[in-house]
Each structure stands twice: as structure tokens, then as C-alpha cells.
């Protein structure tokens, strides 16, 4: 255990093999197990559980009663060595659960940088979460889900296993997602979630100019409003992608998927 400047509450239990960086704080009654690495400046609240193998980066804020790095909730899991990797600058609020990967699912659950994971969020085994995302209270993603950068999941969202949500997508409160959501798309709750336009407000806040947004809107109309089938819609997107890297990213997302798009 390294880092002379670390502050560990006397009631916390930290395995001697855990690697603790400088200026780390570990709160009362928290448990840090073996094969855990916690980067400089990360603060762990009270009553947290961090199991390994888990690597946590710098300057994260993990609030009380979070359970990080637990075994995957998968009946096929046979106790093999799998891991959780969390980046830098994340805020992980109360009662969040993030599980390690599975032997046959890639072996690793990953969370990027600067994410806000609010109370009672669940990130299951083998998920890949990008950076700068917001998961509101009780948002839950099943195993093998991939979330792109700057995506927002509102409260009580549920995402089915193996689905992908593209960068800058916005999933509205209570929506149940059972297909791939392309980048930039806004999904609203209606039983199962359905596309309802693009995340224009979010794109404006992130500096997208009117021309970029207009081309993304045209791509959305080709995919969801024109009545074209997928082959025809893809042809329209290919034309638009000549003038827009954003549309090219959307088209690449569609072409790389294995599950049907949410339509």
C-alpha cells in the first residue's frame, strides 16, 4: 500500500496488497479488497465496497454505499480472473453498482473519464461506457452494453443486453431500450423507447454549429422519417456523409452493429 498522504478512516478495511495513491481518502467502514488500485486524489465515501481486480484512476469521487468491482451477475461466471477499469474524474453517487467482466464476454468492464453516475445506477458485466456521460438516478444497463461519449441516460432508463447507444444520444426518462440507438438521436419513453428526433440542445451546448446540426437532422429524417427501407436510407446517408464527418460517424455506427437499430 503506497501513498504516504492517503487518509484512511480507522474503521475502514484495506487489504495490504491494495495500491493506494497519494491524497486518496477512504471513509468510515469502507472495504477495499486485494488486487485493487486507486489513483491519486480519489475519494471513497463511507460504507463503500471495492473488490478486485479493479483499477480506479485519478480524482474520482465515490460516494457512500457504492459497490464497485463485484462479481458479475451472470450464472455462467465460474470465478475466473476478470476486471473493472475506471478512468479519471468520475462522480459515482450513492448505491451505484458496477460489476467486473466475465470470462467469455471480453473479461473487462470499462468506464471512461468525467462521467456522472447518479444514485442507484447499475453498470453490468462487460459494459463499455465512454467519457462525459450522465446516468441519472436508477438508470440501468445490462451486460455487454456499449455507451458512447457524451450520452445521457435519464432516470429509470433500462438498456437491454448487447445494445449500443451512440455518442451524444439522449435517452428520455423511463425509456426501455431494446435496440441500437445511433449517435445524436433522442429517444422518448413510449412503452419501449422510440426515436423522437435528434439531441439538438445537447449538441448546441457542446459547440455544434447550425450547419453541423442541420446535416445531422437531414440524416435523421433519411433514417427515420422518409419511409425508406434500410438499404435506401443507407444510400441517402452515404451521400450526406460526403459533407459531414458527423453523418459518417452515424453511418459507421450503423454498419458496425450486430443488433437491429431502434426504429
How does this model look, in words?
- The chain is α/β, with parallel strands linked by helices.
- The protein has 2 domains: 7-199, UDP N-Acetylglucosamine Acyltransferase, domain 1; 204-255, Udp N-acetylglucosamine O-acyltransferase, Domain 2.
- Helix content is 17%, strand content 27%.
- The strands form 3 sheets. An 11-stranded mixed sheet has the order 1-4-7-10-13-16-19-22-25-27-28, covered by helices on one side. A 9-stranded parallel sheet has the order 2-5-8-11-14-17-20-23-26, with no helix packed on it.
- The protein is elongated, with a radius of gyration of 20 Å.
- The mean pLDDT is 95.
Head-to-tail CA distance between termini: 51 Å
Report the β-strand fraction as a percent range.
25-35%
CATH superfamily descriptor of the largest domain: Hexapeptide repeat proteins
Low-confidence stretches: none
Number of DSSP-assigned strands? 28
CATH class of the largest domain: Mainly Beta
Q: Fill in the CATH topology of the largest domain.
A: UDP N-Acetylglucosamine Acyltransferase, domain 1
The shape is elongated
The tally of domains stands at: 2
Main beta-sheet annotation: 11 strands, mixed
CATH architecture of the largest domain: 3 Solenoid
Order of the strands making up the biggest sheet: 1-4-7-10-13-16-19-22-25-27-28
What is the C-alpha radius of gyration, as a whole number of Å?
20 Å
Average pLDDT, to the nearest integer? 95
Into which percent range does the helicity of residues fall? 10-25%
Can you count the helices? 4
Task: Give me the secondary-structure category.
Answer: alpha/beta
Amino acid at each position: 500500500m503506497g501513498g504516504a498522504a492517503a487518509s484512511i478512516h480507522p474503521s475502514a478495511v484495506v487489504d495490504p496488497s491494495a495500491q493506494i495513491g497519494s491524497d486518496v481518502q477512504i471513509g468510515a467502514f469502507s472495504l477495499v479488497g486485494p488486487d485493487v488500485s486507486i489513483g491519486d486524489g480519489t475519494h471513497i465515501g463511507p460504507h463503500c465496497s471495492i473488490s478486485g481486480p479493479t483499477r480506479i484512476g485519478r480524482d474520482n469521487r465515490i460516494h457512500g454505499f457504492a459497490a464497485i468491482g463485484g462479481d458479475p451477475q451472470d450464472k455462467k461466471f465460474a470465478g475466473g480472473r476478470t476486471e473493472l477499469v475506471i478512468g479519471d474524474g468520475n462522480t459515482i453517487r450513492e448505491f451505484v453498482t458496477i460489476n467486473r467482466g466475465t470470462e467469455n464476454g471480453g473479461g473487462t468492464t470499462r468506464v471512461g473519464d468525467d462521467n456522472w453516475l447518479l444514485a442507484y445506477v447499475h453498470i453490468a458485466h462487460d459494459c463499455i461506457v465512454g467519457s462525459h456521460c450522465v446516468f441519472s438516478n436508477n438508470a440501468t444497463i445490462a451486460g455487454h452494453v456499449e455507451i458512447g461519449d457524451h450520452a445521457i441516460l435519464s432516470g429509470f432508463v433500462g438498456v437491454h443486453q448487447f445494445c449500443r447507444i451512440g455518442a451524444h444520444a439522449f435517452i428520455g426518462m423511463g425509456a426501455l431500450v431494446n435496440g441500437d440507438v445511433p449517435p445524436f438521436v433522442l429517444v422518448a419513453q413510449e412503452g419501449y423507447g422510440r426515436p423522437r428526433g435528434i439531441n439538438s440542445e445537447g449538441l448546441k451546448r457542446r459547440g455544434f454549429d447550425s450547419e453541423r446540426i442541420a446535416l445531422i437532422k437531414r440524416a435523421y429524417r433519411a433514417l427515420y422519417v422518409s419511409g425508406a427501407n434500410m438499404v435506401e436510407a443507407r444510400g441517402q446517408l452515404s451521400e450526406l456523409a460526403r459533407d459531414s464527418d458527423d453523418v459518417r460517424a452515424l453511418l459507421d455506427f450503423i454498419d458496425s452493429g450486430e443488433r437491429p437499430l431502434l426504429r
